[in-house]
Amino acid sequence: MKTIPQMMEKMIAFSGGNIHDIDHFVRVWNYARTIGALEGLDADTQYVLEVAAIVHDIACPLCRQKYGNTNGKRQEAEGAPMAAEFLKDSGMSEAQIARVAYLVGHHHTFTDIDGIDYQILIEADYIANATENGWSRENVRSFTEKLFRTAAGRRLAASIFGV
User: Fold this and answer.
1) Cα–Cα distance list, 160 to 31, 80, 128, 137 (Å)
2) Close Cβ partners of 132 (under 8 Å, ≥ 6 residues apart)
3) pTM of whole model > 0.70?
4) CATH fold of 4-161, please?
C-alpha cells in the first residue's frame, strides 16, 4: 500500500503545477490528519481519511475545463470515479478505494454524514476554505455550530477563527 507521502507526491504531480489546488489539498490534509489524530481514529480509518483529503478535489481541473467552474456538486459527480481510477494501483483494498471515492463524491454534501471520516473531511475542507476565502466570523460561527461534530474540529475552528 502506498504511503501518505507517496499519495501526496502523486497528487501533486497530477495537479500539474496548479499552486492553488496543491496548497488547498495540503491544507485540508493537514487539518484532517490533525483532527483524526486528536479524535483517536483507528489506523485504517485515519489512512482512508488522509487519502480522501489528498484527493478530495481531484475533479477541479476537469470541472474548470468542462464547465468553467468548480461547482461542488459537479466536483462530487466527476470526482468519485476519478478518485477510484487514481487509486487503482495504490495497493489499497477495494473497500478502502470505494470509501475514498464515496467521500470524494460527497464532500460538499452536508446531510446524512455516515462516518467519522466523512465528518472530519467536511470539517477540514471547511476550515481550509474559510481561511483561504476570508469568510466572516459569523459565517464560520454559524457553520461550525450547525455542522461540526468533532471536539477537535470545534477546538481548531475556535482557535483559528476566534468563534
Assistant:
1) 11, 30, 10, 10
2) 23, 24, 27
3) yes
4) Hypothetical protein af1432 (1.10.3210)
